[in-house]
Amino acid sequence: MSSSYTFPAGVPVNPVRPIPDGEAPISIFGYIPNRAFAIVALVTFCVAVLGHTYYLARIRGTRTFQALMAFGALCEVVGYAARLSASKNAFIVVKFVVQYFFIVVAPVFFQAAFYIALADALRLLEGGGRTLLGFNPKILVAVMITADVVTTIVQICGAALIGVAESSTYRDGKSSTVTSDQANDILLAGLSLQTASFLAFLILLAVCISRSRKTSIAARLPGRFTAILFLASLLVFLRTTFRLAETAEGVFSYASRTEPLFACLEYLPVILAVLLFMAFPLYKLLPHASHALSDPEQHRFDMQAETSNVSNPTLVQPGSKLADGK
């Protein structure tokens, strides 16, 4: 490691010499992850996984939505488990990479769930929702999910290159093929495109809500559904905007070195959005409430219906005629 290179101010330095393989000379987090915060995040996202998995198993009509929400929450669990492990040793590079990958990827599944929720709600309306959206809702889902996948891949590549560049610089005093500033620009580009695409979704959602208020009841989105979806989307958008601002400041900036900002603007908005749809499940918000129960539940319902039909049999006296005269 070059003795002429100055470490970033305030960033924890690895006290072990020589630096073990797989470890960085400094914490790429920019701080030592707080153990208590990691535990709280881990527990709350575990609750979210259980809640959305319950709806996934019980309700057939919203299983795609619930599967995306449950899997996204599971990604958060893996990410915060890696942060919890990193609280013991924040210099192991793979722990940073794992937590970053899963915490960045998770909102992509939540956003996809939001797109599908809006598309499903529009599909149940008169005209399939085309009068509100202006085009087939399936196109919205396909375009938005594709944009999220591409921009997330760009972000992950940028973050990985930052880790490689910083580790190489501080360990050997040599620059890698891609500098940390260049890698940060790649990450920034991915975040900028993701923010722009999700902003476009919010605008389309607002347009649908506005048009819905001016149409007939048969072509109108339910108010509680739009309120919950818009609020959850705003919360996730807040998280994405924070990530964009953090990255724009540069590597080891104040925002990236301040874990309370991460807790308030990354963890909190996302968990609130996820728990919001757990408290108000989609099958209760969508119009017509036509989502079937799972097979065992439906079987019990059918049996109850059959029992009620024969509970009051018609008694016919010997020699009497039926009402139809036969």
Please tell me about this protein's structure.
By secondary structure, the chain is an all-alpha fold. The chain has one domain: Rhopdopsin 7-helix transmembrane proteins (Up-down Bundle). Helices cover 67% and strands 0% of the residues. The protein has ten helices and no strands. Helix 1 runs antiparallel to helix 2 and helix 3 runs antiparallel to helix 7. The radius of gyration is 26 Å and the shape is elongated.
Short summary:
InterPro entries: RTA1. The chain has 326 residues and is mainly α. 67% of the residues lie in helices and 0% in strands.
> How many distinct domains?
1
CATH class: Mainly Alpha
SS element count, helices: 10
Radius of gyration, in Å, reads 26 Å
Distance between the ends:
103 Å
CATH superfamily: Rhodopsin 7-helix transmembrane proteins
| Mean pLDDT rating | 84
> Helix/strand-derived class?
mainly alpha
| CATH domain fold name | Rhopdopsin 7-helix transmembrane proteins
